[in-house]
Here is the input.
Amino acid sequence: MNNKTNGPLSRIVQATTRVEPHELRAVLLSFLFVFTLMAAYFIVRPLRDAMASDWSRTETSFLWTITFSVSVIGVMVYGWIISRVRFSQVVPGIYLFFAASFVLFYLGSSLVSDPTLIDKAFYVWLSVFSLFHVSVFWSFMSGTYNREQAKRLFAVIATGASLGAIAGPIIPSFFAESIGVMNLLLITAAMQLVPVALIPQLEKSKVVDLGNAGREADLDEAKQLARNPFSGFVAFVSNPYLLAIGLFILMYVTISTFVYMELREMLAVFERPERTAINARIDLGVNTLAIVTALFFTGRVASRFGVATLLAAIPLMMVGGWLIVAAVPLLGVMYGLQIVRRAGNYAVTKPGREMLFTVVSDDERYKAKPVIDICVYRGGDMVTAWFHTGLKEVLAFGLTGVALVAVVIAAIWTMVGVYLGRSYHRAAEEAAST
Here is the structure.
């Protein structure tokens, strides 16, 4: 491992981000990796979000149900593959597969006569992609960095996601009309190839720069489970720690769905181009705030106050945020809540969640993690979408009523975050003593 400093620039980087000089190459590669992934996604995300306001609550809930079904099938196939192929080879294969899928959507758009059908198929597929490609990335990261490095570096790496989410919408904002909306799919497809080139370099940097050669994934036990397509689900439900992570994500998803559904209805009065522009401005606010928070807040809080504080911070803010919405149920207030919620997820909650997987086994990290990240997430989408629909259409709740329900959910979310943080520290101490 190279511990040599590289002059004033390295000292500035270390002071502002807590990245050690010998870690800089690996962090930059990881940063570029997630930057590219998120930029590719955010090139097409504003289009997907603009589509949703054209559909009823029931149609949207049905689409989220289909998304959950596709996600479960995808995770089962992924678990079957991961037990037979080396993980470092599976990861580039995943991104090549997604690149091909966007090319197929591009080709299919000229063959399908009903635009509504292709819109809904694209909505479902992009919803699956939005979680799968990030889950695979963070699985790779948790096997690359050790626990101490993760506390300091994951928030810095996560700023790459925020910058990518800022850079991505620039392309459709300025060039969608000139190059054509469907041609954006080809750009997204091409960008999926960048991680394929970065993965071998990160594998080398893990050993040479980070000194983590011992973190090679050993999936021999997983191979014994390969004949069972539900092995990832079994690992999830049999581990209380993983179940708590699943509950944490479920609470997060519920809050996210409530915000999404309320904004979707409020934006229905605008035309699709206006909705797309509003969504893009929200993205800009979210990711600007996320970058500042991740660079100057997350890593320091995790190292000084612990992961429990980190995980409870945003849920506690949501308790206060929804109380404000209940008192002042206006569109501008919902904008603010959405920006704080999403920025907090990117900069604080997401890095904190990924730290939790540095104390689990390889089998749990590579097979149970996608179940949590994708199936629990999309299952939560499905259930809470119908729950929200029931609150609005059966119980006739307005925004104030929904906000009060969200306050209770956010309070539960806060308590789960504290429990998980304490469990993480106990597991880390036990691992260090063995």
Observations:
- The first helix runs from residue 8 to 17.
- DSSP finds 16 helices and no strands in the chain.
- The radius of gyration is 21 Å.
- The domain at 8-213+225-433 is CATH 1.20.1250.20 (Growth Hormone; Chain: A;).
